[in-house]
Amino acid sequence: MPQIPEKIHELTVGQLSARSGAAVSALHFYEAKGLISSRRTTGNQRRYGRDTLRRVAFVRAAQRVGIPLATIRQALAQLPEERTPTNEDWARLSAAWRTELDERIKQLGRLRDHLTDCIGCGCLSLETCVLSNPDDAFGERMAGSRLLPVRNPAPDGDEA
Ligand code: FES
User: Fold this and answer.
1) Mutate to test the pocket of ligand 1, among 132, 133, 148 (most ligand atoms within 8 A of CB)
2) Of 78, 10, 70, the residue nearest 38 (C-alpha)
3) pLDDT for 109-160, tens place per residue?
4) Which of helix, strand or coil describes residue 150?
C-alpha cells in the first residue's frame, strides 16, 4: 500500500482507496451508510480526513467477522466528533465488541460441531436444527431432525 506523507491531512477518494485497499465504490457505499464522511471542495470533490483510514480499516475488519453495518455505525457514532480519535478511543470501541465476538465464536463452534449431522439430514427444522435456528435450546443438547419420542420395541422385536 502506498504511504501518504504525514503533512497531508486530507485524502482524495483515490488516495483513500489506494491506502486502505477498499474500492472507491465501497468507500462511496460506506459514506452513503454514514460510516465515513467527507467534505466537498469548491470543485465538488470529496476530501477525507486522515483518520478516515482507521475508520475504513475498522469497518472492513468488522465486516470480515460478520458484524452488521448498523452495528458498526452505532459503534463509530461513539467516537468523538470534535477531535481525531485516539488509540484509547479505538481500543475502547474494540473492547466493547468482545462480548459480541465471543458469542459469534460460540455460535460458529456449535454450527461446526453439528454440521456433519446436518449435511446428512437436510431437514432444516426450526425446532431442532442449529443451521436454521442457531439459538435453539435443543441444539445445545442434541442434533437431529426432530425430537423423537423414545420407542418401545414391539414384543416380537419389530419396531412399532
Ligand atoms: S438439517 Fe440440521 S438437524 Fe436436520
Assistant:
1) 132
2) 10
3) 888 888 877 877 878 777 777 777 766 555 455 555 555 555 555 555 454 4
4) coil
Length of the chain: 160
pTM of the entire structure? 0.64
* Separation CA 124–CA 71 (nearest Å): 28
Q: CA 57 to CA 130: how far, in whole Å?
A: 32
Q: Which atom of ligand 1 is nearest to the CA of 128?
A: 3
CB 142 less than 6 A from any atom of ligand 1: no
Grid coordinates 463509530 are at which residue? 76
Measure the CA–CA gap between 102 and 75, rounded to whole angstroms: 17
How many Å separate Cα 73 from the centre of its chain?
A: 12
Asked whether 136 and 129 are in contact (CB, 8 A), the reply is yes
Distance CA 87, CA 159 (A): 66
Cell of 9: 491531512
**36-94: per-residue pLDDT in tens?**
999 999 999 999 998 899 899 989 988 888 888 888 888 888 887 767 788 888 888 87
